[in-house]
Amino acid sequence: MPPPRWAQSLDAFRTVPKDLAEASATGAMMTLVAVVTCAVLFICETNAFMSAKTRTDVVLDSNQDSNLQINFDVTMLDMSCEHVTVGIWDAFGTERMNITKNIMKQRIDHKGDDKGHAYGDDELTELEFSNRKLEAEEKAETDADWSSSSDQFKHDDFQSVVDAHDHTFVNFYADWCPHCRMFGPSWDKFEADLNSEQDPVKDADGAKANVRALKINCVDFEETCQQQKVQSFPTIRLYRRGGNGKQFVDYRGPREIEGLTTFAREEVGKRHLNTGAKFHDIFSESCRIKGSVDVARVPGTVHFQAMHNKERTLNLAFTNVSHTVHSFTFGQTSSKITNLLFLPAEYQKHGDPLATKTFTVDRFHQAPHHYIKVVHTRFASISDTRSYQQTHQWSVRNIQRNSVPQAKFSYDLAPVEVIVSKSDRRWYDYVTSIFAIIGGAFTFMSMTSGAITFASSQFKGSINKLG
């Protein structure tokens, strides 16, 4: 039974009788294009709807814990377990040394034939100073005479002058000393000839030695002369580097150029200054340190360094703190804080960015220093799982000669929290998009087909009129 006539008048989808409609090749082609377009867009939209996308929001950190757990697994490549120590320093001024609670040390053999041996005095001197390159300003300072305290130089570190050369020939004099005045011209000529290096002084291996001659005015630099225990003027000494200002030989020969030159060549010729010493392991084993420490939830530093023990006293300034980091993470492993393997792939690498990396130095008085920024991250889409994400930079720091090198891990906690959640689309958004795709595709193709048909009819009409 057909619907009443008044109901038919409400039809918004009225159709044209088939007898009045005309199929065309253009329309058929546009229909096929519309169908293919709809199919492709439908697949893409469905895939986007089914795929889970994440969204991140940054808010003030909601974590109210007073403590933070730091977990580490580090191998000190050239340090015996009996000498390695772990320490903590934080922004509250708390400092804990030689921490042993919750820390396990494992002895590891070095690979290769070299099982570690101590450095000799000559090795230490050569390795510490032979590769050191002075800046132009510093070289001018260490090469200058100490004739006056009012010249352009500082003259505040006699040891740096001695350590800047293989040997340093020093004439300690006083302005009022008559013997110094008589000796002055001869010394000045000797100093100029030696420093010009036209006839270089050679060591026991026939290699050119870095020998410098200079003079020190003990009237202007009385304190330095007292420290060197100069008791008469002129006092002439040949210093050797690396001896803390105490390794020297007094010259007691005639105060003339020939005697000074002969003395310098004989003394320098006794020593092997360039033996080709290389850096090597000083311990027969490495040490792998695993454990965790609880610290205040404020910026701080974890450091690893060498220390003495009851049986052995180390030259701590020459210990090597090169290391391999197997893992360095923050936070407890519990039901609320999931293992890194269960986090989204893009967040796993930031949970432990130092893992499996090695950090080495190849010179004395240097140490790797790590800078870590820690961001508390909450994964709302994984049952509110919490993690500490990290960004990491590192550099090699120069250490003062008498200071103990430390492998430092400095950390700082960001005051914000990152919330990671799923960006789910609602089903009616998906349905609306599908309808829009279908309607839009067919409407566009219909308009294109109509435009082509109209243009074709106009073209044919023009041809008929011309014919």
UniProtKB/TrEMBL annotation:
UniProt KW Transmembrane keyword: yes
Entry-linked InterPro entries: Erv, Erv_C, Erv_N, Thioredoxin-like_sf, Thioredoxin_CS, Thioredoxin_domain
GO CC terms, sorted: COPII-coated ER to Golgi transport vesicle; endoplasmic reticulum; membrane
CDD domains in the cross-refs: PDI_a_family
Protein name: Thioredoxin domain-containing protein
Transmembrane segments: 20-44, 430-455
Organism encoding this protein: Polarella glacialis (Dinoflagellate)
Taxonomic lineage from the root: Eukaryota, Sar, Alveolata, Dinophyceae, Suessiales
Residue stretches making up the Thioredoxin domain: 130-269
PANTHER family reported for this sequence: ENDOPLASMIC RETICULUM-GOLGI INTERMEDIATE COMPARTMENT PROTEIN, PROTEIN DISULFIDE-ISOMERASE 5-3
Presence of the UniProt keyword Cytoplasm in the record: no
Pfam families: COPIIcoated_ERV, ERGIC_N, Thioredoxin
Localization per record: Membrane
UniProt keyword list: Membrane, Transmembrane, Transmembrane helix
